[in-house]
Amino acid sequence: xxxxxxxxxxxxxxxxxxxxxxxxxxxxxxxxxxxxxxxxxxxxxxxxxxxxxxxxxxxxxxxxxxxxxxxxxxxxxxxxxxxxxxxxxxxxxxxxxxxxxxxxxxxxxxxxxxxxxxxxxxxxxxxxxxxxxxxxxxxxxxxxxxxxxxxxxxxxxxxxxxxxxxxxxxxxxxxxxxxxxxxxxxxxxxxxxxxxxxxxxxxxxxxxxxxxxxxxxxxxxxxxxxxxxxxxxxxxxxxxxxxxxxxxxxxx
Length: 252
Fold this sequence. Notes:
alpha+beta
């Protein structure tokens, strides 16, 4: 019986570690930051466990927490390794094609993704998607306009600040003979202050403690002539999303 209970508890903690690692903020700027809080809290428990090790016998919960940290650390290591590998693969492909087509400059594309991130957050906070109409696809424009108009109708507003990007990795690129099919994907990770107020009272209805949150997004771009347009933002990046990102160059 004890073995079954232990197995169940281990699977449960692994499940929540997995979920909290993958899911961050949602909707282009408003989120929970649960992933960051979960990871940070785990670190605190780890320190306490280490300090008490010599004074108390190991319990089942000590074992579960210890194994949980191993699983979390292993998963984080896998994600980091995948990002490096995918980025290097993209870089090799782009090195071959950038000479003939300057649109495929590796560093310029990463910089453009970061700039787009900040512009999107500004548009989201001001509930004005027209601010980025020239850098998003018509489909994404319509989608976000509906979402932001709905926020206005409810009197909700995201307040966004203290944005700090800690990692920008170009992890996917697709180059076709038909330029309109060209695409690339950038993984963006960092921290952000994001809370929601209700107008006109300015009551904080989300993240009342104004806690800075971790986030990880993928920004998806599609080519339109000599411009990259933002096609989609994924705020719930999974391990499979990273693995399945394509790197491809169509043969001449």
